[in-house]
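Marked as duplicate of an earlier ticket. Keeping the data here for the record.
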Amino acid sequence: MLTVHAAPLVLPVGAAAVRGGAVAVDGDRIVALGPYDAVVAAHPSARVREWPGVLTPGLRQWDGLPLLTRCYHPDPREADELGEQPLTGARFEQLAERMDEPRRAGSVRRGLQRMLRHGTTHVAGVLGEPAVRTAVGRAGLTVVPPAGAPAGGPDLDPFARGRDLAGSAHGPLAVGGRADLAVFDVADEAELCAAGAVTCVATVLGGRLVHRRR
């Protein structure tokens, strides 16, 4: 179905920002990008989704491999015992010693879900483990080459490594490109970089709405 995603500010990356902008998506492709009135006029039968804040390209998660293979993402039912945040380092190693494959697979799935809630559409790393590779493929995220070993511990927020939008986005939004989008409930790019991807309200992956906070 043809869908128009509209937001007060569209940040394509590599091109001028569009205030009162919109992106039209047909299947998994972007078919129009520009001012809302012009996009809707060109596609009058499209379903319209209106979002708050800023609409950007989906983000690239440089810590994808360690987040999926060297972290444990607790099940909500384990929150009283383990908390809600990913477990790394010594706590992960202790759990890994007694972790069976179903529990490990559950952690990977939850890790991918949490990435989607942070606007992630691309995961960096060489995913050698078949179970991880399969889970990423089923989720629909795109795997991209790694860019060297990151400093510090892994972080679900792509802005922790990318710093700004250009360094965190998978690439520019462009007509004909794959429809990987993210929407954040902030006023502008400066606020987005300061607040981070925790402000994500929607993630569109290959044209599919895979996360919606409101």
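See parent ticket for discussion. The longest strand covers residues 18-26.
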